[in-house]
Amino acid sequence: MTPPNFTLFDTAIGRCGIAWGARGVIGVQLPEGRELQTRARMLERVPDAREAPPPPEVQRAIDAIAALVRGEANDLSAVKLDMERVPPFHRRVYEAARTIPPGATLSYGEVAARLGAPGSARAVGQALGRNPFAIVVPCHRVLAAGGKIGGFSANGGIATKLRLLSIESTHASGSGALFDGDGALGFDPDIAIGHLRNSDAELAHVIDTVGPLRMELQRTPSIFGALAEAIVYQQLTAKAAGTIFARVCALFPRPHEGLTPARLLRISEARLRSAGLSGSKVLSLRDLAGKAESGEIPTLADVRQMDDHTIIERLTAVRGVGRWTAQMLLIFRLGRPDVLPVDDYGVRKGFAVAFNKRTLPASKELEKRGERWRPYRTAASWYLWRAVDLAKEKG
Q: Domains along the chain?
């Protein structure tokens, strides 16, 4: 028998994996902390798989998954799954889950009722917890009773589940589109790479090593929502911050619909602290909510008409929102082409790696070199971050 194959691919939530055989897709792996971990997890699940380029039907599945996670309307029902190793009850649960459209949810009990097996909500939850076809079988769309978020077995737990639901509900409601088109970057990656190659031979070497620019925007329902998440994530690991942010969202009914200024202003400080927020972050979130309610925080429509400097000036008026936080929003939420966060540790570390420096550069040194990269300093920053990742993988 021909052994199965697998490949890794980029999405808006990170680098995912997919394995396939002669009868269809065997498994889909959501991102782990690093690419090496995602590959290892894929091989753990399908030990005899070999890494290979995907055939056309698998590439279509990859493109559909990536589009859905970007927030685009997409139907994955045509993706052929190989469920030969799946227990019969689990197979029925997965088939029922595949009928839930993006932006909609069912409870475990409602899925059980659809199967004609009322009272088997716990068994439904167990089946979804072992779902090998993440996203294609959208177990993230199944909630606990009363609209509570329930569990999620993928890396990141309920934080990942909330993120997926938020992306889908944003599109379904018609809100939160970052751009009128498909949410692509605000610049042409090929033109940016060509400019960087021609302007800096040493950075060109990094580009050759890393490969194509695979930066994905993180969609958001509002500037307020993006800043609220950024405040929670400050000075924490992504895993810890994701857990706390999910707990904050879970304080409210239908948590995947996201935070709103009114919700944050109504809830008590004690309840926010109970989710793991520090006192300082509670004050920052309250200040953000108050300024959003009074119209001081620009909308997505507003920022389309603003230059980078004006956006930074408006956002940094919020307690706890500094220049770096505003720059991350410009890069990863808005796709602005010419942002260079000179005080970012990862960018400075990447510069040291790429340019063989023994110490981290001063901000002025990085700013001076960055003049060569205008007007595509965002792309340069992305390659410096990737240079750090490569160095970690090598050593």
A: 1-174 (1.10.10.10), 189-216+339-394 (1.10.1670.40), 223-332 (1.10.340.30)
